[in-house]
Hints:
By secondary structure, this protein is an alpha/beta fold. It has helices at residues 39-50, 64-75, 118-123, 125-130, 142-154, 171-175, 184-191, 201-210, 249-262, 267-281, 294-304, and strands at residues 3-6, 10-16, 31-37, 54-61, 79-86, 93-98, 104-106, 133-136, 158-161, 179-180, 215-219, 225-229, 232-236. Strand 8, helix 5 and strand 9 (158-161) form a beta-alpha-beta unit.
Amino acid sequence: MDVVVIGSNMMxxxxxIPRLPKMGETLIGDSFxxxxxxxxxxxxxxxxxxxxxxxxVTKVGDDIFGKMTYDNFSKFGIxxxxxxxxxxxxxxxxxxxxxxxxxxxxxxxxxxNLALAVDEVQMAxxxxxxxxxxVSQLEIEEESIIAGFKIARKANVLTILNPAPAxxxxxxLINLTDLLIPxxxxxxxxxxxxxNGVQGAEEAAKKLMEQxxxxxxxxxxxxGAFLYEDKKKTYFQAVKxxxxxxxxxxxxxxxSLSYGMAKGMSLSSAVRFANEAAALSVTxxxxxxxxxxxxxxxxxxxxxx
Length: 305
């Protein structure tokens, strides 16, 4: 494997609306789309769409959404050997609302994702040990992430943690993380340091390193990204595009970054590559349906060069 993702899957229930509603207000929306999502699944699909060999460790419910999710992974060539099913439980769903400016509001109902157990992750040991890197997020139980990262660490496999959605995490998990990739909100929650664009990014990154992270990459949305490694800081400008829908842009970034690193790019080169892939993703409606191909990313890179 190039990349193994230990994480979530969701069915995205995507509504396009004129604006975000006020409390208690009913709005008439413009359109509705049913799509595949979940941070884990999105990042796996992005890496696979670019050409990486990807394995997924996740859990679905015994409902129609679970079967659809399984088939979607298969369509992208992602290994389904360790996709488990929880009986009498729903699959994860994510109602998403996107306004005319491309801003979004998301509610996550994890369902079977939270039933992914430590022993099930351990069943995937051989696949994890074979990977070039292992990626996880916070839409599954932390103990299951720790189990996977312990297997990876023992096999000298690089671990990447996207601490999203924002919530506190243990020092054990941070210490098992080689590359920590929070956004501004997540970095603020983990450090109690205000991060507003580049302002505060270095201070927050240093504190995360003090907490045990080996390298820190802060994603700053329209302000780009900030990398702190080996006491060296690097700022990466965002790629300017006309955004249509920002849903899944962060997952596109991490999935394409994982692809780049698995294929031998330096971390800095992989960040630049991921910036371009994420920029392309916001020019289309949807989550996984908006993810670019390798040819599209390379075409953008060539035009910018």
